[in-house]
Amino acid sequence: MDIILLLILIINVATITIYGYDKFASIRNMTRIPEKTLLILAFLFGAPGAFIAMKAFHHKTQKPVFAVFIPVAFVLELAIILSYMYKKGISF
After folding, report:
1. What does the pLDDT read at residue 92?
2. Fewest CB atoms within 10 A around its CB: which of 8, 18, 37, 54?
């Protein structure tokens, strides 16, 4: 597997885990992950994971910045990843 794609996979798994923890913490009134951190994770090629976590955990779906930024970043990151795969000759 390509190292870049492996790193993107790791970032997305970590993003899902961190969003899941933040949802858990919000329910139990525990210390939360700052929204800035959640958005940075999405910006660093974690938007697919953030999008999946938002849908799976019903977390941050009402916040306008998340509702707009995450889907847009997801589409842009997906386009970049697919372009990278195409240039490298990597298929599904």
Report:
1. 77
2. 37
